[in-house]
Amino acid sequence: MRTARRTAAVLVAAVTATATGWAVTPATATAAASAVLAAVDGSYRTLATAHNPDWMRALPDATSLAALSIPGTHDTLAIRGGAISQTQEDHGASGRTLRRQLEAGIRMIDIRVRINTGNTFTVHHGAAYQDANFDDVLDTLDAYLGAHPGETVLLRLKHECTGQWGSCTDAAGQRPFRDVFDSYRDNSPAARRILWQPSVRRDAAAAVPTLGQVRGKVVLAVLNGARGGRTDQYGLAQFADWNDGSSTYVQDNYNVPNTGAIATKRDQVRRFLDRTSAGDPARLYVNFASGASLFALPYQVAGGAGGTQGVNPFLLTYLNEGPEVHTPVRRTGAVLLDFPGGALVDRILAHNPR
Asked: What is the pTM of this model?
């Protein structure tokens, strides 16, 4: 369960942290060689090598978001909490990491929040605060889309805190998750400018839009509760069954029990990628390439460990292979990555209409 994974995150973080950084553990040493190879091929921890700030601008207004190949990030701002919590390269707190991802071409983000005092959201991954609040996210998106009005960003927003051991606990006496979200929607100047209104209504879900409908906007894909499941009707109608894990249009098999099981995760990503490519052209598919456990840390699943190829280098190879190897991928849908490399981002984008 995700809660168990987060409980493990707290324990491992406490054990491995030092006053000056993170201790080199046997697990980190084992993964080092595989991680170096992944970085060399550009699939892992090389986000800064990608620069695609306006890649949507040239696409026709009539293009459905469902037709696109969209690089995204899982736990977009998870840069704190140690090896088991961190899922992204650290390009700075308070939204600066998000800004760098957007410049690279990331267009789907995954934000997890705690309800804080004053009925506000702070960004968390499990118990670990990520040195950012929801205003940082909104302000960063507002500034970026103001400078790049041809772009749009998909947002998955999740209430992170279950209150169980190892997870975060919301501040006492605050309003419910949906009410705090509505307050941002209605009162934040940035939110009022950028949120695509059909996607942020409590009582009516939206159809998948075209680019022309949402340029310069943030499209809420889903508003997830702390224990999974969509909150009310927020987001896109096709994600009515988006729960904790996989659903009709989402692959999120996040439990990778050990590094040997990375191969299973690779296969899950591949099969869903093939399903996306051959699937309903009117539907947006979301494929989480991420996974973790106490014995398979996020960076190991992404970059590889102990001679087992990570998901990121596997994906780059698979997307580069021609028809002599397998049926080529026509569209990837949204692929949410941990520690993406620049070449992998570029390769996903290469599958878009030209």
From this structure: 0.91
The 8 Å CB, 24+ separation contacts for 238-242 are 238/208, 238/283, 238/284, 239/205, 240/205
> What is the chain's mean pLDDT, rounded?
91
Q: What is the spatial distance between Cα 292 and Cα 91, in angstroms, rounded to a whole number?
A: 22
What fold characterizes domain 2-349? TIM Barrel (3.20.20)
Closest CA to 273 of 335, 205, 224, 210: 335
Distance CA 65, CA 168 (A): 33
Cα 212 to Cα 57, 65, 130: the distances in Å are: 10, 10, 34
Span 281-292, pLDDT tens digits: 999 999 999 999
Query: Which burial class, exposed, middle or buried, applies to 187 when counting CB atoms under 10 A from its CB (0-12, 13-18, 19+)?
Result: exposed
- Pair 316, 43: CB distance under 8 Å: yes
- Can you read off the two tokens belonging to residue 211? 């680019």
Q: Where are the domains of the chain?
A: 2-349
Tallying the residues shown for the chain, one arrives at 354
264 phi and psi, to 5 degrees? -65, -40
Q: What tokens does 348 get?
A: 């996903």
Both structure tokens of 304 = 């590889």
- Given a contact cutoff of 8 angstroms between Cβ atoms, the answer to whether 72 and 107 are in contact is yes
CB atoms within 10 A of CB 143: 15
Q: Cα–Cα–Cα angle for 297, 331, 247, nearest 5°?
A: 55
User: In terms of C-beta density within 10 A (0-12 exposed, 13-18 middle, 19 or more buried), how is residue 91 classed?
Assistant: middle
To 5 degrees, how large is the angle CA 269–CA 271–CA 274? 110
Comparing CA positions, the residue from 41, 30, 123 lying closest to residue 76 is 123
Report yes or no: 71 and 347 within 8 Å, Cβ to Cβ.
no
